[in-house]
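Hey, resending since the last one bounced:
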Amino acid sequence: MTAQKKIRIGVVGIGHLGNYHLQKYSKIDACEIVGVSDTDPERARKAADLYGGDAFSDHRDLLGRVEAVSLCVPTGYHHAVAKDFLAAGVDVLIEKPLCATVSEADDLLEIAAKHQCVFQVGFVERFNPAVMALEKVITRPVFIEVHRLHPFFERGTDVDVILDLMIHDLDIILKFVRSELVNVEAVGVPVLSDKIDISNVRLSFACGCIANITASRISAKTMQKLRFFGPEGYHAVDTRKREILSLSKAAGPDGRQQIVQNQIDIGSHDPLEEEIRAFVHAVQTRTAPPVTGEEGRKSLALAEEILQKMKTHEDLPL
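The structure tokens again:
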């Protein structure tokens, strides 16, 4: 029996996330890292020395060498870089958000479809063991409360907090609330950067569900919690600790309704490794990835609508 041919992998953007992507690919037998690219040649060289492959300062030098790539470049470069690979028929895993604008996202989706490329968006929280465990118990959420609070870091401030942090939760909410969005209320302010650093958003869906979301990158401590309330019970997910508390009602020994805690098995896998393995599987089997480009577009479109709503508050006196 002949050995299965390995997928020729490249990673573009060797910063914080790019190095993690390389680390995960290096663990997967089905992959061969053949090249890395970064505008800083020294950074690219160090990564190539550590994980294998050739180092380049121009991502286009990977064309013709790779079959699939991870794109970990700043959001403003997503469209231009992804377009080059998709047009060449290369499968792409692109870090969230999909693009800076919906029009850019639509262009990439069209190119990916034309060339039949696997096109996955890197929403790593989808692969968080606690979020995956939520699928076992949630049915019809009626109210959702979300807090994603982080201390300030320069990394990520090329975009506002909605595209930097909140978009993770927008993606999760859209996954579990499969209903038309009917209203958006939003407010946000810049504090330590020239973009929105803290924001609160209220989403109303046709099914009656309300989602209240707070995102901040200027907090003293980190909090990443989603709380779901519905007819079947209450489910609290801590994505940072990878824990879930699930409560539901059940008949007690006397026949009366009481609150019980559901025992839920939570996996112990690494979310990023699970995400990258899912991408590799989609490339191997030519099937749709767990988070498609179309899903990435939906969360991006919602983020754009939120930002548009915030503009109505810009001229209000403080």
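The first helix runs from residue 16 to 25.

Sorry for the duplicate.
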